């Protein structure tokens, strides 16, 4: 009975491993579809941004199409809007030696898009140009500070993406030994199941029933084919008693 219990336990374990394997395949397929969707979306966003000339882009555009890049773009836009509310953004020139160059004639489209996207810029432009600064200095000072915000976000984004790639590679490398261990465990379980499975002489369940019937007969006091009959035991006892009586009679005569 113990061998049967071990056999059924092995079958249940094998079925559980099959279900787990199927679940992992479904998860992997869903992950692949999700990654494909993200890649297609990123390609679409990238193609749309590439249609915008570099000199016409706003500071938060062109950072990338990934989820993190889109998040970084939102952070840059929020920071640029905050800069637009500060009067010093337009009146403070870049430090000497910064290597900053700005040509308003090549940035006309970017300026027009900026005025529509950030109304605060147009408000300060009305107050400061030309009484405090020229129009070219006004936008040069603004774009210099906005580009600093963009560059800072881009550096952080590249560092985060590099760390994410390294972490993914480390996780993939760590998963390889686990897969090997699961494979060895599965093979060992299969061997254990085959070793512990009961062997039959080809009779199937009927042969097992016959063996059980013989055991019940023996436990009930039945005769086995090789056991001597009760009649034979009784004849042997009578002969023994007769021999003893004869010996006693001879002793009395003496």
Automatic annotation (TrEMBL):
Residues 230-240 have a biased composition (Acidic residues). It holds the Pfam family BSD. InterPro entries: BSD_dom, BSD_dom_sf, BSD_domain-containing. PROSITE patterns: BSD (PS50858). Coiled coil: none annotated. Residues 101-150 form the BSD domain. GO terms for cellular component: Golgi apparatus; nucleus. Residues 24-44, 192-202 have a biased composition (Basic and acidic residues). It comes from the Eukaryota. Residues 22-44, 178-240 are annotated as: Disordered. This is BSD domain-containing protein. It comes from Cafeteria roenbergensis. The lineage of its organism: Eukaryota, Sar, Stramenopiles, Bigyra, Opalozoa.
